[in-house]
Structures are given as structure tokens and as C-alpha cells.
Design brief:
globular; 111 residues
Length: 111
């Protein structure tokens, strides 16, 4: 999955917390959100803040689908509320390869 496809899929499934997302889909979307937010910060912190708020739900849904691919609950994202250690653990879990077979969250993503 390339950059544009990943961003399109994440916005198309902006409130879909079911299913699974492969690593490229999740990490390309994270890169998109970070880069756009940093670029917007150059112009105005209010615009950057508004963009971050607008992409909150798509980011949470992409994160939940990514965790589902590693056979973990999407609620595990709440561990990110723990500063530093929680963030490190979430990055570690999201960087792991997904399950190749079916799991309780569905079949592996096709692409």
C-alpha cells in the first residue's frame, strides 16, 4: 500500500473501528498526520490544532484496526495516556507484524 492509498483508506474508514489494518496503512497515515500538522504549525498553531482535532477520530480508528491486526483490543490505545512508557509500548505493538490467519477481529487485510 502506498502513501496516497493509505491516507484514502483511513479517511474512507474514518469511524470504522472494526476490522484490521496492515502496518503500511497505519504508519503512512501517522506520517501524513504528523507532517501536515507540522507544516500547518508554521502558519498558525490554531490551524494545526484544528487539523489534529479533525483527524482525531480517523487516527483512533486506524490505531484500533492496527491493534486488531496484532490480535489486541483497540482499547489498548488508552495505555498511550501513560507518558513515555505507554507511548513506547504502543509504538512497539503497532510495529509488530500482524497475524497471518483469522483472529477474533476478522480475516487479514487483503492488500
Amino acid at each position: 500500500m502506498n502513501f496516497m492509498d493509505a491516507v484514502k483508506v483511513c479517511f474512507a474508514k474514518y469511524a470504522d473501528f472494526n476490522g484490521r489494518a496492515k502496518r503500511p496503512e497505519f504508519w503512512w497515515f501517522v506520517l501524513f498526520c504528523v507532517v501536515v500538522s507540522l507544516v500547518l504549525e508554521i502558519f498558525s498553531s490554531y490551524i494545526s490544532w484544528a487539523f489534529s482535532l479533525a483527524t482525531l477520530v480517523p487516527s483512533l480508528s486506524a490505531g484500533a484496526r492496527r491493534l486488531h491486526d496484532t490480535n489486541k483490543s483497540g482499547w489498548l490505545q488508552l495505555i498511550g495516556l501513560i507518558p513515555i512508557l505507554g507511548w513506547i509500548y504502543l509504538i512497539y505493538v503497532c510495529a509488530q507484524p500482524g497475524d497471518t490467519g483469522d483472529n477474533p477481529y476478522g480475516a487479514p487485510p487483503a492488500n
